[in-house]
Design goal:
7 helices; alpha+beta; 12 strands; exonuclease activity; globular; Endonuclease/Exonuclease/phosphatase family protein; six-stranded mixed sheet; endonuclease activity
Length: 314
């Protein structure tokens, strides 16, 4: 199916990146559910060994055009069509089973990445120009775009993306995944409307104790009211739960890819899977970051991926 886009219905506004630079120096659309044949690895590690760990990555990919934008080599890699391979190769090192993209590139680029990773994918159109993508080695079913209660997206909300789908895990268990990129304004008012709307749509699944993930660029730090809304509703911030010694040191920072200063990208979990989290950390390494010793270096994005690992045998 071709990618479908919502028309932008909100005026231009300062982005989170604009804010970070300053601080540091209409209706519901149908989801475009595009699937690539999966080439999933074995569902189980081996006879008697139980299920494989589930590896999940949340990544704002900045349209897959490299960062900073003015780096000549990054521009050249984009012009030569290298970025799909670069993203796929770097992500593959971490053997992800589920990946979310915020600020996703055009579907043709997503398709190349998905094929290289052996993943299915669904695309979530944006209320503006920032679509999302959910990729998985496993089957993805029942995708919904901006599934607000009542069926209509308020024009000023979810102008980036929010989508819901179910990933069918190897044993047949359904895993509900919400992929989201919330409002980037430095003030919280819009996010404080987006989150309750999302929680209303999640309520029946939360009350039923179903395993769920919320992954993406939530555009808020962990010390603010937005974060408390999630945790009060039953969501577990996996980095806060299992991030180890770094948690108490204010680490886990996910932006920017040269000198990370904020933690705004998350893998959250609810239901039984929340107790199965065993690792959560940003990937400040490899091609995901710049090299401070090389003024020509570029990162794949201005954000770092957030990796979380779940031991499904727990």
């Amino acid at each position: 199916m071709a990618m479908t886009a919502l028309p932008s219905s909100s005026p231009a506004a300062p982005s989170r990146r604009g804010f970070l630079r300053q601080a540091g120096a209409a209706g519901l659309a149908a989801v475009a559910a595009t699937r690539v044949p999966a080439f999933a690895g074995p569902a189980f590690a081996g006879a008697g060994e139980g299920p494989r760990p589930l590896r999940v990555i949340a990544y704002n990919v900045y349209d897959c055009t490299g960062w900073p934008k003015d780096r000549a080599l990054g521009k050249k890699a984009t012009a030569l069509g290298q970025m799909p391979a670069r993203f796929a190769h770097e992500l593959a090192l971490y053997e992800p089973d589920i990946v979310n993209f915020s600020e996703s590139p055009p579907e043709a680029v997503v398709r190349q990445i998905a094929e290289r990773l052996g993943m299915n994918f669904v695309t979530f159109p944006s209320g503006g120009k920032w679509p999302g993508t959910l990729l998985s080695k496993y089957e993805i079913v029942d995708p919904q775009n901006a599934p607000v209660v009542g069926g209509e997206r308020p024009a000023e909300l979810f102008t980036r993306h929010w989508g819901r789908a179910t990933v069918k895990l190897p044993g047949g268990e359904p895993l509900i995944v919400h992929s989201a990129h919330l409002n980037p304004f430095p003030t919280p008012e819009v996010r404080l409307r987006e989150i309750p709307a999302m929680l209303a749509a999640m309520r029946s699944d939360l009350d039923a104790g179903r395993s769920m993930l919320l992954i993406g660029d939530l555009n808020h730090t962990p010390d603010v009211a937005e974060h408390r809304l999630w945790t009060d509703a039953g969501w577990v911030d996996t980095f806060a739960k299992v991030g180890g010694q770094d948690v108490g040191k204010g680490a886990g920072l996910t932006i920017k890819a040269d000198e990370p200063s904020w933690r705004i990208d998350y893998v959250m979990a609810a239901g039984p899977i929340a107790s199965q989290a065993v690792e959560s950390r940003p990937l400040f390494e490899g091609a995901f970051r710049t090299n401070p010793a090389d003024p020509q270096s570029f990162a794949l994005s201005d954000h770092l991926p957030q990796l979380a690992v779940f031991d499904l045998a727990k």
